[in-house]
C-alpha cells in the first residue's frame, strides 16, 4: 500500500494516523504539491492531484475521508473505529462531514490567510469560533467525538484542531477540547514520534518559504 503524502498536510495526517491506529504499514511517497515534478507524477494517477492519494494493487483512492473509510472497512477487524451499527455510524459520519465542511474548512481558511500574510477577517474569525464552539459541545456531550470510544471522527477532528498550532490559537476557552486532545492522542500508538516528525516537516516548510520570499 502506497500513500502519496506530506506529513504537514492535515488531510495526509488523517490517513497516517488512522493507519497507525490500525497497525497498517504504508509505503510513503513523499510528495511536495508545490514541486511541478511531484505534481506531474501525482496527476498521472489522480487527476485532482491532491494528497493524500492512496494506492493498493493498482486501486487508487483520494480524499482522506474516503481513504480512511476504505482502510477501516478493510483492516479494522473489531470494527470500533467505524462502527457498523447504523445509528452510531451516522454520528461518526455527521462529525466527518462537519469536519470537512465546517471545522477543517474554517481552520484552513484562517491558516491560508496567515500564510498569505493577511490578518483573518472578522468573518473568518467568527466561522472558526462557531466551529470550535460546536466541537467543544461534541467532545463534551459524549466521552469521544461521536461515540463512547475512539472512532475515525476523533482522528479527523484532532488533525483540524492541532492544525491551529499554525495560528498559535489559544484553546483556553475550550477545556473540553484540550482534555479530549490528550485522551485521543494517548490512544494513538507512537503519537509523540508522529508529532516530532510533524514539527520537523513544519519547520522545513517554514524555512523553505522564508528562503523563497527573501
Ligand atoms: N478534501 C481533501 C483535501 C486534499 C487537499 O486539498 N490536499 C492539499 C494538501 S493539504 C493538496 O493536495 N493540494 C494540492 C492541490 O490541490 O493541487 C482530502 O481530505 O484529502
TrEMBL record:
Quaternary structure and interacting proteins, as annotated: Homodimer.
GST C-terminal domain sequence ranges: 85-210
Example of a GO MF term: glutathione transferase activity
EC number: 2.5.1.18
Keyword terms: Transferase
Protein name: glutathione transferase
Domain of life: Eukaryota
Enzyme class, UniProt record, top EC level: transferase
Pfam families recorded: GST_C, GST_N_3
Listed GO biological process terms: glutathione metabolic process
GST N-terminal domain location: 1-79
Protein family per UniProt: Belongs to the GST superfamily. Theta family.
Amino acid at each position: 500500500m502506497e500513500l502519496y503524502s506530506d506529513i504537514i498536510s492535515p488531510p495526509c495526517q488523517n490517513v497516517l494516523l488512522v493507519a497507525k491506529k490500525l497497525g497498517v504499514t504504508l509505503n510513503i511517497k513523499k510528495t511536495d504539491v508545490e514541486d511541478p515534478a511531484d505534481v506531474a507524477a501525482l496527476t498521472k494517477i489522480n487527476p485532482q492531484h491532491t494528497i493524500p492519494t492512496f494506492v493498493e494493487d493498482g486501486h487508487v483512492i483520494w480524499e482522506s475521508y474516503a481513504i480512511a473509510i476504505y482502510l477501516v472497512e478493510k483492516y479494522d477487524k473489531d470494527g470500533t473505529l467505524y462502527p457498523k451499527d447504523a445509528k452510531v455510524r451516522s454520528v461518526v459520519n455527521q462529525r466527518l462531514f462537519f469536519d470537512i465542511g465546517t471545522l477543517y474548512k474554517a481552520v484552513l481558511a484562517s491558516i491560508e490567510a496567515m500564510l498569505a500574510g493577511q490578518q483573518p477577517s472578522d468573518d473568518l474569525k467568527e466561522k472558526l469560533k462557531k466551529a470550535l464552539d460546536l466541537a467543544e459541545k461534541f467532545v463534551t456531550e459524549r466521552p469521544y467525538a461521536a461515540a463512547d470510544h475512539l472512532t475515525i471522527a476523533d482522528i479527523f477532528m484532532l488533525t483540524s484542531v492541532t492544525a491551529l498550532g499554525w495560528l498559535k490559537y489559544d484553546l483556553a476557552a475550550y477545556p473540553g477540547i484540550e482534555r479530549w486532545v490528550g485522551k485521543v492522542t494517548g490512544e494513538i500508538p507512537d503519537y509523540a514520534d508522529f508529532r516530532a516528525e510533524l514539527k520537523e516537516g513544519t519547520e522545513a516548510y517554514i524555512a523553505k518559504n522564508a528562503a523563497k520570499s527573501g
